[in-house]
Design goal:
81% of the residues lie in helices and 0% in strands. It is mainly alpha-helical and 132 residues long.
Length: 132
């Protein structure tokens, strides 16, 4: 792939990603992070009760547990990530009339896993503070 092709790829990628929230199936930009957030809150409360280290904090600073924690997060959000990818593939085929796997992966992780990472840490910390 030449430098020009790579540049064109990134321009198309960001243009397509920027158009998604205003195109058909835009509801998923609210629904999927909300479902991921609810799972993060549930898991964060459970972990707060057993005084577990906040999820994102543990991933960043506990190298020994990092792999198992990432697997735990993917396991907790796996169905949401798969659903996000499936809906994005449908979107791409309906609206763009083509399929770009990298875009589907970016959208799936952004809508399914990132909210879990951010909110799980907050809910673990806040539940631990309430328990004290």
């Amino acid at each position: 792939m030449s430098e020009l092709d790579l540049s064109d790829h990134f321009v198309r990628l960001w243009a397509n990603l920027a158009d998604r929230p205003v195109e058909p199936l835009a509801f998923r930009f609210l629904l999927q992070p909300a479902v991921s957030a609810s799972l993060a809150i549930r898991d964060g409360i459970q972990d707060g009760r057993v005084k577990a280290t906040p999820y994102l904090w543990a991933i960043i600073f506990d190298a020994g547990s990092r792999a198992s924690l990432v697997r735990e997060g993917i396991r907790a959000t796996g169905k949401i990530i798969i659903l996000a990818a499936a809906i994005d593939i449908i979107y791409q085929l309906m609206v763009l009339r083509e399929f770009h796997p990298s875009e589907a992966l970016i959208v799936a992780v952004a809508l399914g896993f990132v909210p879990y990472l951010l909110i799980s840490r907050t809910s673990r910390s806040s539940d631990a503070a309430v328990a004290q």
